[in-house]
Amino acid sequence: MKINEEYQLKSMGGHSVVTSGEQGDTILFALNETGAFLWKGIQEGLSKEELKKQLCLEYEADPEEEELIANDVEEFLLQLKTMGVLD
Question: Cβ(42)–Cβ(1) under 8 Å?
């Protein structure tokens, strides 16, 4: 799983935004804190399972919350794939 090189994560005015274009000047969408956390994990080469584990650790998830977090990670990755952001 790899982010298409056309897209970059930038911080603008305290917000995380995904940009594209040669200069990275076209803002496509914003990410919340969790989305930015997952984006950085993908950039680091983490697998889907590693992303889920790291997110559970980051938010000190209870066992009951782990399934919800796993579903959220799946949905986030599916959205990125659908938009062509993930190769």
Answer: yes
Q: What is the mean pLDDT of residues 70-77?
A: 96
Q: What is the torsional sign of CA 1, 77, 44, 17?
A: positive
- Token digits of residue 42: 């993908």
pTM: 0.91
Q: Which two tokens stand for residue 8?
A: 């970059």
- State both tokens at 87: 């190769």
Which residues, in sequence order, are CB contacts of 61 under 8 Å at separation 6+? 55, 69
Pair of tokens at residue 45: 């080469």
Question: If you ran DSSP here, which 8-state letter would residue 86 be given?
Answer: B
